[in-house]
Amino acid sequence: MKVGIAISNYKSNQEVIDLVNRINDEEWPIEGIMIVDSEGDGKILENLSGNVSKNILYHNFDYNLGSAGNLSKRLVLSSKLDWDFVLALNHDALVEKSTFEQLILYMGLDNIGALYPLRYYHAKGFYDFSGTKEVGPWRSFGPSKKPDKALISHIWSSSNGALYNLKPVRSGIIPREEFWMGWEDYLYGLDLKKAGYQQYLVSNAVCDDNYEFEERKIGPIKIKMSAKPTWYHYYRTRNLWLISCYYHPSLKRILLVLVRTFIETFFICFGWEKTNRIEALKLQTLGFIHGIMNKSGKK
User: Which residues of 90-103 are buried (b: 16+ CB within 10 A; e: fewer)?
Assistant: First the structure.
């Protein structure tokens, strides 16, 4: 089977250049590398080392695709090549060659939609198993010890490091660009599941994830929580409500997202946001309103 790599970029030229050069120097077993850029200045190809032997394809869009749009474009453009699978990477790729080699061992399984690496969160001290369940009131969770089971059935995971089968894409199952930023990988996982495709977490494909967690104090309790820009509250809320009400509607999913929204409101009020609390609450409220009104896109 033929495998390629598709890398997203938004004003992170040097990171992408370093990543491509590393993949080339380490001789990853791939057909080629695609770079999908947003508002790029064209300098990535100019500054790659002269000895890059892999086939490099570069696509630049004159507007910001957002994470959802970039993933959608990468999969669609990859599906037009003769690749069977594509490894999706962000500019800050976590996946090493050894991780990739473990993922491709399972490409021959029946009806594979996606294979995901096993992420280890250093800041929290556990392996991420949150994709084994629906998105609900819990946050990332998992064991502190690597599981013995080789493959673990999954619903979804981050696209950064995911190995996607291009057969579903060619049949019209494509990440939704209108989500712009946030939960597009969860929605795509649900789309794959609905179409009957299998998704697995590959236990031996371990990667270290230095996700942005910060220790916050909520009353007398100290808790490590994600540290993202304030505007994330809008998309985090809106897109989950879009999924639960319109894209994959179910009463159970609506209830889970409702509980999650209340919990995140509590966290915003009592420790998540230190300096932009009112702004964060406004954005979360607007995200909820737009979600139940079926408004998507970049807002």
Answer: bbebbbbeebbebb
